[in-house]
Design a protein that fits this description.
75% of the residues lie in helices and 0% in strands. By secondary structure, the chain is mainly α.
């Protein structure tokens, strides 16, 4: 009886950890959406979401990055605990954990002002990149690459389970998200919107996987 109780507590704990991942993308983009319509001078067609970390109200988006990163770290620990010894238990959780650290770092380090935002910033792109902006870009790039890699790891896991729909979803996320980045830099028109859509797919992958794994944890809980 005691052993069953321990297992039950473990699965309840895992579900709480995975909840962080489940709400991470909706939380992040809810905060972004409010700022898109309220920050003076910000134009999502031209400006990257990262630009919201600048200016007097930049603390809002910096906090958004950091909290989202912490949510991802909680999810990574939950994934590692739930899938220990299985596909995704090691590399899947590690990659999502690195993504979490990267998001938090992207909130600590800020990009350079440019394209007229915030007020008083140069109208064009910055002539050179500061160290802080380079660290912000590196953190975000590493986070993004880790998410793409995680997509294919979980695609393999779901394929092995016979969950074709989930496997296709993971692969599609890993392909479409970077393609949108390439398109955005190629056309430079509505680049902010295109980049945001790429992020919705990539960040949304974390929320979707965490939600699915919470369901798996609940199923195991019922079997205890």
């Amino acid at each position: 009886m005691k052993q069953v109780s321990v297992k039950t507590n473990n699965f309840h704990g895992i579900r709480k950890l995975l909840l962080g991942g489940a709400i991470s993308a909706p939380f992040f983009y809810a905060i972004v959406l409010v700022q898109v319509f309220t920050r003076t001078g910000f134009d999502i067609r031209r400006h990257a979401i990262s630009s919201l970390t600048l200016g007097d109200l930049g603390w809002i988006q910096r906090t958004d990055f950091i909290v989202t990163g912490l949510f991802a770290l909680l999810a990574a620990y939950g994934i590692r605990t739930l899938l220990r010894g299985g596909v995704g238990g090691t590399w899947g959780s590690l990659l999502i954990g690195i993504y979490g650290f990267g998001m938090a770092a992207a909130g600590i380090f800020r990009p350079d002002p440019g394209l007229g935002f915030p007020s008083g910033a140069p109208e064009g792109m910055p002539a050179s990149m500061s160290v802080e902006a380079a660290l912000h870009s590196a953190a975000f790039f590493i986070s993004f690459i880790c998410l793409i890699a995680a997509c294919f790891i979980f695609a393999r896991r779901f394929a092995a389970q016979g969950k074709r729909g989930w496997s296709v979803y993971c692969m599609a996320s890993g392909i479409v998200s970077p393609l949108l980045i390439i398109v955005g830099f190629s056309v430079m028109s509505w680049i902010g919107v295109i980049m945001a859509c790429s992020g919705i797919i990539a960040f949304g992958f974390v929320s979707a996987i965490a939600t699915q794994l919470r369901a798996e944890a609940a199923s195991r809980l019922r079997d205890c």
